[in-house]
From TrEMBL:
Protein name, per record: Uncharacterized protein
Keyword annotations: Membrane, Transmembrane, Transmembrane helix
Native organism: Burkholderia cepacia GG4
TM region positions: 21-40, 60-81, 93-111, 162-181, 230-255, 262-290, 302-323, 369-386, 393-411, 423-441, 453-474
């Protein structure tokens, strides 16, 4: 090829990369919007999952397309974003500190410091138990079916019908961390702090994978913040942010396999394993552990990694499984579900070969993954993999993400409540890291500098997503939570009360049956069995209470 042809090729290359990003993002966005416009077959999705798809994800898909159009229009004006990315890559703690403050505000005033789902409530509950210096909460045994939705007993919360002991079915790592924040009266602050640390961990992972390329770290951090799912998880009580952080830190020892780093990786792996449930870390870690074994590590390296894993895995993992089994050993429980994430036969029943229903669920989950990310993020991640695929760390990160994605095809239920694709979130940071590799730096020994047009477009997508899409999704979250909380009958704040909720009138009321582990809350929420049965229940419990007028969703009784 002559010099003139090479020059033309270099001129055409910048625009072609940006055009590919625009076209592929537009096509992907249109497909998501069309899929959400279609009605899924009946009884495939849970009521919670279906409601969030139709009510909030449909308009978000249309807004994502509008964001793409605006980003294309203003991309020539966003050339300075690359300078901001480079600065963020050099000083990740500054951006992390700002993120912690912003997300703390969001947790308090957008999420209302409220565990939205029973998944979140179970961990919140256990965190308060640990903060009280105990292992279980305590409910009156005869009240269990009033205080905990029966289908959630020994599924999300382990109960003893003999003693009234109650504990979370999930492994206790996250609850222990929440307990520390609960001691200062701010358990809602936990995930904002973890989110800030996740940004720093993302930057460090980028530096280990792409040495001497600070810009990759900066771009990855900005892509992360520009994705609504990161903020949504960061202001919630879901465990996904902590799993994401622990999985990122886990890979560091494999990128620098010194004894100290391998021990640290083992510790972080055990934290991820026992943080909530073991499956997310098992899927993420599997490619790294297999690759590590194929490198024929020394016995010292293997024992160091095992030594890091063993203590917390035995104490918080196996120990918690045995403790839950001890709680639920009374005869009355044998007919109920076995403790979640505990018994081997329950684990076997939690997996199945994917059928048509699961394929529909995972297709919808993929749509949520797309529209809760910054527009174009998945396309940029694919471009980053194609550009850096010779890097073994890139291959392993990609393998972790792919295995996490497909591993849940064998889990026979959707995620219910939650933002984005929750099951994928423990591996989600792979996407912004690969996207950062697509737009930053150049490969050694190659004429492969990132096209300026692609950088400008990526920068404009960040700006537009931060200014339009993230606020929109935060507003949707606040609206949804406020709507649910408004269904609780109002009671005077200075009076003790019992609120009966009629869960047959709305499935979302099930998640509002939330109480202190020792019923120290001034207003206790219970499941209603009808006004006459509720009155009879109070008489039998020797509770002197007077009813307030019933509402559409329940009735409050003031305790005299």
């Amino acid at each position: 090829m002559g010099s003139a042809e090479k020059s033309v090729s270099r001129v055409q290359s910048p625009s072609s990369a940006a055009v590919r990003l625009i076209v592929r993002t537009g096509i992907g966005g249109c497909i998501c919007a069309l899929l959400l416009a279609a009605d899924a077959p009946l009884n495939i999705f849970s009521p919670f999952f279906s409601y969030l798809l139709k009510t909030y994800d449909r308009p978000a898909a249309h807004l994502s397309l509008l964001v793409l159009v605006i980003a294309v229009a203003i991309s020539p004006l966003c050339h300075r974003v690359s300078t901001v990315a480079a600065a963020c890559g050099r000083h990740p703690w500054r951006l992390a500190a700002l993120t912690a403050v912003t997300f703390a505000f969001g947790a308090r005033f957008i999420y209302h410091a409220h565990p939205l789902s029973t998944d979140e409530y179970a961990v919140w509950f256990q965190g308060r138990v640990f903060a009280n210096g105990a292992l279980t909460g305590q409910f009156p045994p005869d009240w269990l079916n009033r205080l905990i939705y029966p289908r959630f007993q020994n599924y999300l919360l382990v109960v003893s019908r003999t003693t009234g002991q109650v504990a979370s079915a999930y492994w206790p790592g996250f609850a222990l961390l929440l307990a520390a924040f609960n001691r200062i009266g701010a358990d809602w602050l936990c995930n904002p702090v973890l989110s800030a640390l996740t940004l720093v961990a993302t930057a460090r992972t980028c530096r280990l994978v792409f040495p001497n390329e600070d810009a990759v770290a900066g771009w990855a951090m900005l892509f992360t913040l520009a994705s609504p799912v990161f903020a949504a998880s960061g202001i919630s009580y879901f465990a996904m942010t902590g799993l994401l952080l622990a999985n990122l830190a886990f890979v560091w020892g494999f990128l620098r396999p010194t004894p100290r780093q391998l021990f640290f990786s083992g510790v972080m792996g055990s934290i991820a394993l026992t943080f909530h449930n073991p499956l997310p870390h098992v899927l993420f870690a599997f490619p790294w552990l297999v690759w590590f074994l194929f490198q024929r590590p020394s016995w010292r390296q293997m024992l160091t990694l095992i030594a890091g894993y063993a203590p917390l895995t035995l104490l918080l993992g196996i120990g918690w499984v045995l403790f839950k089994a001890h709680i639920a050993t009374d005869i009355a429980n044998h007919a109920a579900h076995l403790p979640s994430q505990g018994a081997l036969d329950w684990i076997a029943s939690a997996f199945t070969l994917p059928d048509l229903g699961i394929l529909f669920v995972r297709l919808a989950s993929t749509v949520k993954l797309w529209i809760w990310a910054m527009p174009g993020l998945l396309i940029l991640a694919g471009m980053g993999y194609a550009r850096r695929r010779e890097n073994i760390a890139v291959q392993l990160l990609t393998a972790s993400a792919v295995l996490t994605y497909f591993g849940y095809f064998f889990v026979p239920f959707d995620q219910g409540n939650g933002w984005g694709y929750r099951y994928f979130h423990p591996a989600w940071s792979v996407l912004p890291i690969l996207a950062g590799a697509a737009v930053a730096g150049s490969l050694p020994h190659r004429n492969d500098a990132t096209p300026p047009a692609l950088r400008n477009l990526a920068g404009s997508l960040i700006v537009c997503s931060l200014m339009i899409l993230v606020p929109w999704q935060m507003t949707s979250i606040e609206h949804h939570i406020s709507t649910q909380l408004a269904r609780i009958p109002e009671v005077p704040a200075d009076k003790r009360s019992i609120v009966f909720l009629s869960i047959e009138r709305s499935k979302f009321l099930i998640d509002l049956i939330q109480n202190d582990p020792y019923l120290r809350n001034r207003s206790i929420r219970m499941i209603s069995s009808g006004e006459h049965q509720d009155a009879e229940f109070l008489r039998n419990a020797h509770i002197d209470a007077v009813p307030l007028p019933a509402t559409e969703f329940g009735q409050a009784w003031l305790i005299r």
